[in-house]
Write a structure and sequence with these properties.
Shape of chain A: globular
Radius of gyration of chain A: 21 Å
CATH class of the largest domain in chain A: Alpha Beta
Helix content of chain A: under 10%
Number of helices of chain A: 7
Strand order of the largest sheet of chain A: 4-3-12-7-8
Strand content of chain A: 25-35%
Largest sheet of chain A: 5 strands, mixed
CATH topology of the largest domain in chain A: Sulfite Oxidase, Chain A, domain 2
Largest interface: A-B, 42 and 42 residues
CATH architecture of the largest domain in chain A: Alpha-Beta Complex
Distance between the termini of chain A: 53 Å
Order of helices and strands of chain A: EEHEEHEHEHEEHEEEEHHEEEEEEEEEE
Oligomer: homodimer
Number of strands of chain A: 22
Number of domains of chain A: 2
């Protein structure tokens, strides 16, 4: 598969899908990494597949669904016999459909890169998307494979490790893990998904089967799923052990090896909101103007928007389609109509979750540029000045 | 029981327990509301019962455990027959012991009262305590009463309502509710507790039986438990419908009726940390000095302390006895040794949870003064200046 070409690196990207979207900003061609413009992103509650961000660590696998299987193994649990599920077996489990926003841990990395140089693809605020996902629940598949309930002393505190098929730049294959309680808990809605927005998954998004872990950084929603392992410890993967962690502000490249083992692997997402319209430095007239954006912080929350740099705040109108609070994984779109804007207005937004957590006023630097959820601030230029 | 005495109000508090603790600051005598000093609080990982904050809304019930029962009812679920459990029946369920910090939603209300007048007992940062709690799991008791799994379509999205025995100033009785999924989820560890720190509950803390809801505002951990009702909606209690909600900053007394129905009832706690030693305006020498405090934000987190008003931060040493991350309900005590302090040093602390949420730099006002988790700031006076 990988024909080494000196000029192009060790991997062959020539079989990657063709991706037609005028709203996608390509941050890197090989591996393919792209995010939509913010004004495209905020236009629809369900993000269309072509405009959904693509985050890759290698060439896109080109799998044959009729031959593909997913193995479930638990080498340290004698009661379990390894088994493989093919796609038609996975489709025989009850089909669960959920709406879930998936966000990359590196979303808004550009904001941290302004503080000091960060390592990673310099994403803006578009590496988030809100889709419907359908498939078997991880719970059903693990129970069918004989995995005990997560409360069973034999597996309490264990983890579920996922491995993808395909080549990967940083490790042997792409891998990640989540705690077993999360994988098995009925109200966490972890899926083995084969559909996105009502259609078969596209290659870019994990065809024929991927993990969806709602409420957790996108890195754990492993695409092109090959292997599930139930094990006492977290995944040994680069992406669990040595990446996707929040480094202290002073740590740089030469201290990574020392710090990585001391830090916890990221899972749950923090409170987040972003202004998508208007955009930074957009020229607008003095008003009226509608400010729009997205937020993720569960179903029950408040959205504050300021047009004076954070001195005063107004509550925005919210739009989401939450079925019930404990199963709310979708994002919320919000809007605030402002009658008048001052010259050089600084727009700021901050979301609050049900517990009263909110976004920090200013970003705190970390070298890998992850989990930036500082209040989103943009300046607009009144058109009279332009 | 309640002999009305014009001079003393409608309730009789003469049978309240005698409470000997030199470290308890009484905020209100009737009903009894008291919190420990911060330096007493930070001294031990497990808070002793006499120094554990007391939050009451009426006289303390004086119940006979040999006659006390707890009912489980579900009037809108035909499959369930109401039943009552007496204390020896409750003790026959497997005994679960957990360490959990319980925090009042009004903890640190004094910080919001500095911004504008708030309604409620003006608590400092001592309405939190960390104890071992033991009893039957709510899950076991509800299953024994015939309540279906929370994922069952018959009860999906339902709530579990708790009522206490005894008189209450704001309502007929004290009541609250939590979502059924939370009550039933094995990894939420909701208890019907009859022991605190290895001994029978004291009257002040709910003898003979109380609810413990880890990770949630103290208001839901109903004491002197009388009645459990499984129902489609939240509790109708004053404390669920019309209190313990975060009002927008502009709302005052005359707008409460309009705002309460529009706001969600508080449940989960936000990220919190407090400096307990030294205390505000304490005179200290120029150093070395050990700064100590508590934090709640799950097992995996970081604790930042600043001695220059938040310009620079150091990581504190942590102490907790977490058995496993998904079951961590205890607080963490932390300490930072500082070699030297400047004149008029401003000490600040901020905790981070595993998701990267942290405490806001400055408090945001709400009239009921709940959920204040702003970065805790104190000024110390170097003794050379005193």
């Amino acid at each position: 598969m990988a024909t080494t070409d000196e000029k192009r690196g060790p991997f062959d990207y020539s079989n990657d899908p063709v991706r037609p979207s005028p709203h996608l900003l390509v941050r890197k061609d090989e591996p393919f990494n792209a995010e939509p413009t913010l004004s495209a992103l905020v236009r629809r509650y369900i993000t269309p597949v072509p405009e959904f961000f693509k985050r890759n660590h290698g060439p896109i696998p080109d799998l044959d669904a009729s031959k593909h299987t997913v193995s479930v193994e638990a080498p340290e649990l004698p009661s379990i016999t390894s088994r493989r599920f093919n796609m038609s077996e996975l489709r025989q489990f009850p089909k669960r459909e959920i709406i879930a926003a998936i966000q990359c841990a590196g979303n808004r990395r550009d904001g941290l890169n302004k503080l000091a140089k960060v390592k990673g693809v310099i994403w803006a605020a578009g590496t988030i998307g809100n889709a419907t996902w359908a498939g078997a629940t991880m719970r059903d598949v693990l129970l069918a494979a004989g995995v005990p309930e997560y409360d069973d002393p034999a597996v309490r505190g264990w983890h579920v490790s996922f491995e993808a098929i395909g080549e990967c730049e940083e490790d042997r294959v792409y891998g990640s893990s989540i705690p077993l309680w999360m994988a098995m808990s009925p109200n966490r809605d972890v899926l083995l998904a084969y559909e996105m927005n009502g259609a078969t998954l596209t290659r870019d998004h994990g065809y024929p089967i991927r993990v969806i872990v709602p409420g957790v950084i996108g890195a754990r929603s492993v695409k092109w799923l090959d292997r599930i392992t139930i094990q006492p410890a977290e995944s040994n993967s680069f992406f669990q052990q040595r990446d996707y962690k929040i480094l202290p502000p002073h740590v740089r490249e030469n201290e990574l090896a020392e710090w990585w083992p001391r830090l916890v692997a990221l899972q749950e997402l923090n409170v987040q909101s972003v202004i998508c319209e208007p955009t930074e430095d957009q020229s607008v007239n003095g008003g009226p103007l509608t400010i729009r954006g997205y937020a993720i912080s569960g179903a029950y929350w408040r959205m504050h928007v300021s047009v004076d740099g954070g001195r005063t705040w107004k509550m925005a109108e919210l739009y989401n389609t939450s079925p019930s609070p404990e199963r709310h994984w979708g994002w919320t779109l919000w809007a605030l109509r402002v009658p008048k804007l001052s010259i050089d207005a600084e727009l700021v937004c901050r979301a609050w979750d049900a517990a009263g957590n909110t976004q920090p006023e200013l970003p705190v630097y970390n070298y890998r540029g992850v989990m930036n959820n500082a209040q989103h601030r943009i300046r607009v230029l009144p058109s009279s000045k332009v």
